[in-house]
Every structure is written in C-alpha cells, then in structure tokens.
Amino acid sequence: MVRFLLSRPIAVGMTFLAFLIFSVILFRTLPISLLPPIDVPQIVIKVNYPNSSPESIEQNVLEPIREGMVTLNGLQDLESKAGSEVGDVRLTFDFQTRMELAYIEVNEKIDRLTNSLPNDMPRPQVVRINSNDIPIVRLQIIPKEGVDFAEVSMLTENVIKKRLEQLEGVALVDINGRQEKVITVTPNKPVMTGLGLKEADLISAIKDGNSELPGISVEDGQFRYYLRLASRLETAEDVGNLPIRGPSGNTVTLSKVADVNHSLAKPTGFHLFQGKEGLVVTVHKQTSAKMNETMPLIHEAVELFKADYEQVDFELTQDQSSLLNAGINNLQTSLLFGGLFAFAILFVFMGNYRTPIIIGISLPASLVISFMVFYFFDISINVISLSGLALGLGMLIDNAIIVLDNINRKREEGLPLFEACVSGVNEVQSALISSVLTTLAVFVPLVFLSGVAGALFYDQAVSVAAILCVSLLVAFILLPLLYFLLFKNKTKSTIKEDSRLFKGMLRGYKIIYQKLFSRPGLSLLVLFLMIPLLLATVKFLKVEGLPPIEKFDVLISLDWNESIDASQNRDRIQNLLGQLEGKFTVAESDLGLRQFILYEGENAIQQADLYLMFANNNDKENVSNQLRDFFRQNFPKASLEIKDAPNAFDQLFNSNKPYFEVRLKQLESQKPISPSQMNLWMEEFPLAGVSKGPGLQEGSSVIFKTDLEKLALYGLGVDDLITTIEQLFGNYLITDIRQFGEIIPIQLRNDQLDFQTLLKRNYIYGEEGVAYALDEFIAFSYDSHYKFVTSDRAGIYQSLNLDVSEPESHEADILSWGVERNLAVGFAGQYFQDQETIKQLMGILMISILLLYFILAAQFESFLQPLIVVFTLPLGVGGAFLVLWLSGTSLNVMSAIGLVVMLGIMVNDAILKIDTINRLKVTYQTKEGLLAREALVKALYHAGEIRLKPIVMTSVTTILALSPVVFGAGLGADLQRPLVFSVIGGLTIGTFTALYFVPLAYWFLSGQRGSVKF
Questions:
Q1: So where does this one cross the membrane (predicted)?
Q2: Are residues 533 and 578 located together in one domain of the fold?
Q3: What are the phi and psi torsion angles at 750 (to 5°)?
Q4: Closest CA to 232 of 750, 727, 744, 747
Q5: Does 954 score more than 80 pLDDT?
Q6: What pLDDT, on a 0 to 100 scale, did the predictor assign at position 328?
Q7: Contact, 645 vs 610, CB < 8 A?
C-alpha cells in the first residue's frame, strides 16, 4: 500500500490537505467547555416550608415524597434530610439511567403528590445534577450607599439576569441574596385597645380592600364589559387609607391605628462581598457552547452594566475558565516545546535539518485531523479530552522518530530513495500497529469504570485513540511522502551521517552491553531484583485524588450551632471580616438559606460559607490559624471547616457522603433516639474517633405547652390560639398586591420583643370580647432537639461517622453494641464505593494485561516473548514511583495518567526491539547460514545498535519537551507536574530497560545459557 501511495504523491498530498481543511472546519464547530457534559445520576428534591420544624417537615412533607418515589425506574438509593424550614430528598439512580426521563418522571410524581402536601407550602423544586451545573463565573452586584436594595434586587431579576441569559452560550443565570419589598402593618396596640379594635378587624379590613371581582361581566347595549373594583390596593398609602370599623360603629382609617410602611421582608439569608450586602449571579453555560467565546461576551456585558447602572458596583469572581485555559496552554506548550526539542534532538543525533521539518509538519497535522474524530464521536474540547491529546503526543513523536530513522537507515544501507521509504515503513509497520493496540488495550478498558470516573475516561479514551490512530496514518503515509519529496534531489553522499554525540553514545552502549552479557545470569537477576525494590517506594507515596494545586483561596464552612437568625449570622460574619481587614484581597460569603435554584447542598439559617482570596500563601496560612484560634476562644460551640476553595474538578469528584457511616434505627419505634439516651450510649461505644452525623447534631429550642383545660374553661378554641401565635411570632401574610408581574406581600408585623414579653402584652379574645393574656394559657420550657431528621428507604435513622483505618474490621464490635441496645445497625459511606472502584480497577487491569498479552502473542507468534514486554512494565512503574517519591509528589490522577503515557512509550520501544531481533535472527540464519546460537548473539547485538538511536531520541525528546513544566508556575504547571515526574522517572528506567533488559530476557527465554563472547 505504501508503494502504491508513494507512486501518487500529488493525489496523496491533496487528500491530506483536504482532510486538514475539513478538520479545521469541524474544529470550529466543536463545543469548548471545562468538563465533559456528564449526567451525574442524582436528582435532588428541595423543600422550603417557612416556620416549620425538622420533625414537621419530615412527617408532613418528606415522608410522603419518599413513599411516592420508591417506584422510580432505576432508583438505586433514596435519602432525605429535614432541617428548620427546609428539607431535601436525594435520589440516586443507576448510571445507565436516562436522566432526562428520570427528571420528567420525578416531576410528574411531585405533581401527583401536591394534594397530600401542606397547602401553604410552595411546590418542591426538582434539581437535576449535571457537570454543566457548575457555574463558569460569579458576578457580584453590590448596591452603593443609599441605594434601595429591593430596587437593585428587581434590577438584577428583571434586567441583569435577562440580559445575561440572552448572551450566546449562556444556559442559566442563578441568583442569591435577593431581598423583596413588602408592606408591613404594625398595629398600635394602645390605640386599638382604646377603640375596641382587634387585629382580626385590621386583617379583615385589608383583605376586603384588596378583593377582586371573579370575572364578572355586564352588558351595555350591544357591548359587554368586564368589571373590576376601583378600590383595589396598589401602594402603602392605599392600605393606610382603608377604613376600619370599630364595635361601637365608629370608623377610622387604618393609618390611625397602625403604622403602614414599605420595607424589606425579613431575610432568611444574605450574600456578602467584601463585607457588604449584595447579590451574586452565577452564570452557567450551554452544553454546546464554547467557554472561550462565552467568557468574553460576559466580560463585555459587565462593562456595559457598569456604564448603564452607576448606582451599583459589579465585579466578576471565581472564573472557572482558568482551568480550561491552563489545559489549552499546556497543550500549546507541549506542541511548541515538543517540536523544538524534537528538531534539536534530531539535528544533534542526525545533523540533518530536513528530518525535523518533517516532524514539525506531522505533529500539528495529526492534532488537527484528530479533531475530526472528536466531531463524529460528539466529544467537546475540555480539560479531560485535552489531557488525552497531550497523552498521545508522546506516542506520536515516538512513531515519527522510529519511521524516519528506519527510512534513513535504509538509505544508508544503499537502497534508492523510493525503495528506502517503502521498505523503511513496511519493516516497522506491524510493530507500530501492535504498539498502538497495546497502548489502547491498557487505556481503553478504563471506560468501563462505573460512575463519574468512567464517564470522564470516555472522553480521554476517545481522544487518545483518535490521535494514536491518526499518528499511524501520518507515520505510514504522510511521513514517507514528505521524506520522499524533501530528499528527492539529494544523493546518499549529501545526507549527513550520525553526529559525534551519537557515535560516542553508541560506544558507551556497546561497552555496557558487553559487560552485562559477560555474566548474563547475574545481570538479569539484578534487574529482576530491582522490580520489587522500585515498586516498594509506592508505600512512601501519599495517595490523593487531584494533585495539590497551589491555591491562594480558602473556603470556610461554619455552623454556629446556635438558634440565631440570618441577621445575627450576617453581623457575626461582618464583624469577623472587620477583624481580618487588610489580610485578604477578596471576601465572599453566602449565609443562611440559599436562593440558588441549582443549590443542592445543606441549607440552614445558622450556617455560612466564607470564601477568602489571599495575595500569597503566608497570608492564607496565618489567617487560617487566626480563624481557628478566634472560634476556639469566642464560639467554642461552632463547627468550623477550613479547606482550599474547590474548583470544578473538586465539585464534580468530591462526594457528600461520609467516609464510613454507622446508621442506627430503633427497632421498637420509628422515632429518633432521644438525645439524653444517645449521649449515654455514646460513652459505651466500642471505638474512639467517632463524630455525630446530621441526625444526632443537637440544637436548642423553646417548647410551648398549651393548657387545654383552661382554654376549655374560658370557652376559647385551640385554633384561635394558634392563629394568634402565628400573627404574633411569624411573618403573617395578610394578602398580596399583584400588578404587572410584581407581587408585593402585605405582612402583619408585631413589636420585635422577646417572646416572654410578647406573651404577657398580647391577648386572646373570648366570648363577648373579653381579653385574656396569652401567658395564662401557654407554659414554655427550654429543651435541646435534633437539628436534622435523616431518613432512607426504611425510615428515620441516625448516624455516626468513623474516621479509622480498616473500618470493616470493627463491624462485629459495632453490631454487638447495637444488638445490646435493641438497635438496627447498618453501614454506608464512601468507603464501600471506593472498595467497589478498586475491585473494578483490578478487574480492568487484569483484562488490560490479557489483551496486551494476546496482541503481542499474535504479533510475535510466540507465547514467551510477550512476557518480556510484560516484565518491562514493572520496571518503568517502579522508576516512576521512585522519582515521585524523591520529588515529594503524591500518587494522584495526573501522575496515573503519566504512568499510562510512559508505559505506552516503553511498550513501543520493547515491541520494536523484539521485532527487530526476530527479523535479524531469521536473516542471519537463512542468508548467512549461521547457527541458531550465533545468529541470536549477532541479532541481539545488532538490534541494539539499530534501535539505540530511536529509543534514546524518543526518551530524550519526550523528557525535554515536558521538563519546562517542572520549573513552571501557576495552575497549569501544578496540574501537570505529577504527570511529568511520572514520565521522566519511568522513561529514565525504561530506556535502560529497553536497551539491556529486553536482550537479556530474550537470551534466557530462548533457552540459552552461559556468557557471550564478542
């Protein structure tokens, strides 16, 4: 085939050019995003039920929802958590479930359940989790001093949000920190008492004044008109002018007996930026959008906002596109330095400038054509797929060097240019195909991992397969074509031979080779002993998910563990920021209940998340220590967690599950275990290092106990008492003013006093209008209660979180402890999922090794020779572990990718070396008539000389191309550095392995013994 294609250079060249043009066109249509659009198989149902306790939300809301959801198709797990005023139900599905259909089904079931849920509760929100739910940027909107916050909230909701959503590529704009305008009616109790008016009279007057006719029409001749009442309320002044009639028949305006004002609704949460109250807008991109095109549009829009709305400050924060830019920059760096170093190394080794030019053309050509595969497999350009391309670039350079060196060697042997190109490609064709197949055999099975990891590896596997297959196409067709065209007018004498550097390296190789083969048994034994020694260094490596990236920002998650309101929460955060003033560059906080539609985390009024950005790492560490001391001294009850601010990777990979969780359920009843009983049992728990889960976290509460006997004696109804308490302590909604889509609630607001005073000063009215103080019928007490009620399929449970090594070894003791107390004990947590992932990885690894063996057995037509390649892998892995340990780098996702890159190159070198030995051995036996032992000795020696140049060039080029990352700084360098150390360590040992271990192992597997004389 190569002969046929080289005979038609113009047709082949034009075909490749057409491929390149077509690929560029398709590349422009590819979506560019931070992460692949992964459907996480989870749906969260969020409940917001104001003025409700956790027990009430669990019993009246979450329990009916759980019962309605158990029949969902593909449902794997179901859990719920009820807190004060909020609750959520988390549904986890099998990963093969079509989440768009599951989302529709969940919404349909919620609609059916509406009648069984409380009438005064808003419809539960159904949130579907997707990697695109991670916002690409946050826009801070801060009203300037003196500007009405409610007006800015309306501006954000009605203008800013809509203008951002109109931008190309923006899918959703989410808002937190809104504050609504309300009309508050505060009764003047002394005046109302003097006039004999009650709050019920005031409420009735407002409702009557805001009533509408229900679609009544009248006829006027041949015309028909719809009626409306002209007395409908529109402003606070209209409310104040309403008449209210007393029991004696006197009528006064409502403003005489109550203060009517426009004000802000009592907030349940705030957003702070630099310590000031404001709003935050999170921007989410469309799946098919290009992030690098969407972000400039957002920046332009923000500049227009600054010009149009001078009463508001705008600022963009937490731009996630920096991760994508880091990935793109890394790929550009790999291409640039890969090409430069390949040129330099080829020139140093060959002294020829035309050969590097060929590689300089083939690298970008392969990369561009690979994007055509992206288009047909519906793969976006993201950090994962880009890392796959970077992974394949090493193999691409490797293939190019091998083919060009082989063609050059054929020319040196005296073949004509055309025949040298054909023979040079054909000789290594099968070996290169096998090396690509073995690399894919190691990597592609990772796609079958379950969960998010498998979905991410799909993009990477497709990108690796694309660039490797394209590299073969380029190596077999484009490279010999370019070589033929560039050297067409050059005779053999004009082509420079090997450089002095390589000749010196060749002499050194021969000396070491002869010494090793003088005692081959001992040499091979030493190499085999190196395998366990090198692999043992893995015990000294720290295992992490992602490499530690130097971050100058932290996320502080805290729970005050006190029954405070949102305003008190805000004041404490502002006071804290005041003490830290000047020590941070950016401060952002979401506290209390979040208003985000897509927020699926824990929601409680007494909680807060504080994001701080620092100028350097020293400030970050100092402030973190200062915060720990501050909370230890001033708020010992508060729960404080300080960690690096999560990026998009962290948000996708981090699990909200505890590491190992013990779930406890009472067998006698479905009620939670009482706090006093649980505290006693905790003292007898068989393990230390145990923390309480959400269902066991305690908070204080006030309990009202009504005197039913006394109420009956005075002829008072319990419903009247409850209504009075709601009006007194809650944000009692009287009615709404609705006009042109704007809703302004009218709320009854009483004096902001402590509850004991309010009970003494307020009354409930009996027969003939007799007033009785509320505290006559209500006794109160303080008590502790659980802040959350947690449940699963089987009902309410309470959990303990264990932080111990090998937790499964303690299960028997925990079960025994539970049986003694008549408790049902279950185990859950991330630990079990990690164990399942490890089992899958081990199975996939075995499949990969078998595939590798089968491919090599077919290539070499031998059952023993593939073992040589298999045994080279542990040496390379051990070398990578050694360099990771010496450099203080952890074993993480990026270093694991580096291992795959390194193993691909090592396998390639070993396969070509064995393939060359096999061919030379046959040649020496058939053409030169040597005996089998003599032919083998000569083949081993000569194959080492032939393959020395491409093996060393490939390793040195790859190492030098990656080395700038070691000395680089920033996010991209931090991400790629573990990968680079893995490759450098593996190739350093791997080069030695390919040069010396392969011939030694081949010698012994051939049944030969004894030393070799040269």
A1: 12-30, 331-350, 357-377, 383-404, 436-458, 464-486, 522-541, 841-860, 867-887, 893-912, 951-973, 979-1005
A2: no
A3: -100, 175
A4: 744
A5: no
A6: 66
A7: no
Count of CB atoms situated within 10 Å of the CB of 645: 17
Determine, yes or no, domain membership for 889. yes
Q: What angle do CA 932, 933, 938 make, to 5 degrees?
A: 100
CATH number of the domain enclosing 639: 3.30.70.100
Residues 989 and 867 in one domain: yes
Whether 270 maps to a domain, the answer reads no
Is residue 509 a part of any domain in this protein?
yes
Cβ atoms of 898 and 980 closer than 8 Å: yes
Closest CA to 675 of 658, 694, 696, 655: 696
**CA contacts within 13 A on the Cβ side of 78:** 21
Distance CA 955, CA 401 (A): 11
DSSP 121: S
pLDDT at 492 over 60: no
C-alpha to C-alpha distance for 390 and 728, rounded to whole angstroms: 66
Pair of tokens at residue 853: 């063996």
The burial of 39, by beta-carbon neighbours within 10 Å (0-12 exposed, 13-18 middle, 19 or more buried), is given as: buried
On whether both 48 and 102 belong to a single domain, the answer is yes
Question: Percentages helix, strand, coil for the chain, rounded to the nearest 5?
Answer: 55, 20, 25
Most confident of 422-426, 483-487, 713-717: 422-426
Specify whether 421 is located in the same domain as 470.
Answer: yes
Question: Is 10 within 8 Å of 481 (Cβ atoms)?
Answer: no
Total domain count for the chain? Answer: 3
Structural domain of residue 844, as residue ranges?
A: 2-32+324-546+834-1005
Of 103, 133, 163, the residue at which a domain comes to its end is 133
Per-residue pLDDT of 54-111, as tens digits, reads 888 998 999 999 999 988 988 988 999 998 888 899 998 887 788 889 999 999 999 9
Q: Which residue has the higher pLDDT, 783 or 23?
A: 23
3-state SS record for 511-568: HHHHHHHHCHHHHHHHHHHHHHHHHHHHHHCCECCCCCCCCCEEEEEEECCCCCCHHH
In angstroms, rounded to a whole number, what is the distance separating the alpha carbons of residues 958 and 334?
A: 9
508 and 526 assigned to the same domain: yes
> 817 with 691: CB under 8 angstroms?
no
Q: How far apart are the C-alpha atoms of 11 and 571, rounded to whole Å?
A: 75
Comparing CA positions, the residue from 372, 377, 368 lying closest to residue 462 is: 377
Question: Which of 133, 164, 197 is at the close of a domain?
Answer: 133
pLDDT (0 to 100) of residue 350:
63
d(CA 471, CA 483): 16
Mean pLDDT over residues 2-24, rounded? 78
- Shortest CA distance to 425 belongs to which of 397, 445, 402, 398? 402
- Can you tell me the mean pLDDT for 782-794? 82
- Could you tell me if 478 and 557 lie in one domain? no
Beginning with the edge strand found earlier in the chain, give each strand of the sheet holding 732-739 in spatial order: 258-264, 181-187, 742-748, 732-739
Burial of residue 374, with CB atoms counted within 10 A of its CB: 0-12 exposed, 13-18 middle, 19 or more buried: buried
Q: How far apart are CA 999 and CA 288, in angstroms?
A: 52
pLDDT, tens only, 805-846: 777 778 888 888 888 888 888 888 878 877 777 777 777 778
pTM: 0.71
Measured CA to CA, the distance from residue 299 to residue 170 in angstroms comes to 13
Token output for 132? 């695109």
- On whether the CB atoms of residues 538 and 883 are closer than 8 A, the answer is no
3-state secondary structure of 473: helix
Helices and strands: H and E segment counts in the chain: 34, 30
Is the same domain home to 354 and 502?
Answer: yes
Do 402 and 510 lie in one domain? The reply is: yes
> Parallel, antiparallel, or unpaired for β 823-828 and 690-692?
unpaired
* Each residue's pLDDT tens digit, 845-859: 788 778 888 888 888
Write down the pLDDT at residue 312. 92
Is pLDDT of 623 > 80? yes
